[in-house]
């Protein structure tokens, strides 16, 4: 088993912890700033985030940033400033991931999600429950694909964007950086950076 430290202990982290139970990783510590002191429970050490700094030099320990917010994940990754290979890639046993897809460090793929051949998934990405990422899609770093989303073939999602639950993107749509797509949307054309859109676009 590989030793794992999880950063964050909210609702999103609870899902991460549940998936890790059936993985190659063993959680040894969980750090969150809602804790002011360290304590141990069920063999796991808990405490504020700044207490994990003494582990950063130990290359036998892996890390996972369990924040649902894209910007928060990016900020924490910049603070930790560790090698990419030190981040775990975590996926549910029920996720279907093509051997011809590339999944980068720190990414989470949840239950029932499908990632098809030719997909390139960046760092610290969330592919949430039941989402479908069809062939040859490119998803940049710090993106969140919410539950039930369908990305049809050759879609491109740029850094920091959120695709809301149950949205559908038709083939070859490009989404710019830091875009928010509202839940249940159908996106038929490109969306430029820093926009919030919803409905049939």
From TrEMBL:
Acetyl-CoA binds at residue 144. The record marks 136 as: Increases basicity of active site His. Substrate binds at residue 68. NCBIfam families: NeuD_NnaD. Residues 3-78 form the PglD N-terminal domain. It comes from Listeria fleischmannii. SUPFAM superfamilies: Trimeric LpxA-like enzymes. This is Acetyltransferase. One of its GO terms (molecular function) is transferase activity. Keywords: Repeat, Transferase. The active site is at residue 135. InterPro entries: AcTrfase_PglD-like (IPR020019), Hexapep (IPR001451), Hexapep_transf_CS (IPR018357), PglD_N (IPR041561), Trans_hexapeptide_repeat (IPR050179), Trimer_LpxA-like_sf (IPR011004).
